[in-house]
Each structure stands twice: as C-alpha cells, then as structure tokens.
Specification:
mainly alpha; 1 helix; Methyl-accepting transducer domain-containing protein
C-alpha cells in the first residue's frame, strides 16, 4: 500500500512537471508566432520600400536619359551654329571694300 502511495506521488509529480513543461512550450510557441507575425509585417513594409526605391531609380534613369539626349541635341546645335558662323564670316568677308 505504501509503495502504491509513493508511486502515486511520483506519478502526480511527473504529471505536474509535464504540465509545467507543456505550458512552457505553449508560451514559447505563442512568442514565436507573435515574432513571426512581426517579421511578416516588417517584410511587407520592406517590400513596399524596395518597390518605391526601384521606381525612383527607374525615374532617375529616365531623367538621366533625357538629360543625355538634351546635351547631345545642344552639342549638335552648337556644331551647326559654329558652321553657320563660319559660313557667315566667309560671306561677310566677301563684302569688304
């Protein structure tokens, strides 16, 4: 009888330990779930920021292309002006007395 009582006490103690461990696992799992949700939310924010950055870089590249085109056009016009000025100087030189 005494042996049964001791065994019962040991079983009860083991059940309490198992319950405590189970509660600890449950608590840790809840923390992990909450952390995972926070990570997912931050990943969404990061994705939005990354897309905004990509869009801005695309816009900058487009603007740089427009600037390059304008500079090329200005260079062409400058060359045409130089040719026209040289031609004009030649023509004006013909009218000297």
């Amino acid at each position: 009888m005494r042996e049964q009582e001791e065994n019962g006490t040991q079983i009860l103690s083991a059940i309490k330990t198992i319950t405590a461990v189970t509660q600890g696992v449950k608590s840790a799992s809840e923390e992990m779930l909450e952390g995972g949700e926070q990570i997912a939310e931050e990943m969404k924010k990061l994705a939005v920021i990354t897309q905004e950055t990509t869009d801005s870089m695309t816009e900058i590249a487009s603007g740089a292309k427009q600037i390059t085109s304008a500079v090329e056009e200005a260079t062409c016009i400058t060359a045409q002006n130089a040719t026209s000025i040289a031609h004009l100087a030649e023509e004006v030189g013909k009218f000297k007395i």
